[in-house]
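Q: Here's a chain of 115 amino acids. Please give me its 3D structure as tokens.
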Amino acid sequence: QIQLVESGGGSVQAGGSLKLSCAASGYSFSRCAMGWYRQAPGKERERVSTISSGGSTSYADSVKGRFTISQDNAKNTLYLQMNSLKTEDTAVYYCAAVCSGHNYWGQGTQVTVSS
């Protein structure tokens, strides 16, 4: 059973930082593509950042230069360092994995940025 559990969300003022973590179990995600997505109220879920099994990263234009995705294969944990947060970053953030053609999602963690 593959499980993804996010943590690290919370409330922060604009300009602040948060670091999200996603602990994976049930498989070795070094063989999977991983990513962070977010969904704000009334909006569709959108891609924030992804990292391939080979370590290649990509970012949405809205977070480039502010967010950094990384992973610790030994700990089977995915991270998202978020700096210079803006009010428009407020959303539920989801961890996702694509392994052997199957998609897996975490339960999400709330990030709220206030002005």
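Q: Can you summarize the key feature?
A: The chain has a mean pLDDT of 95.
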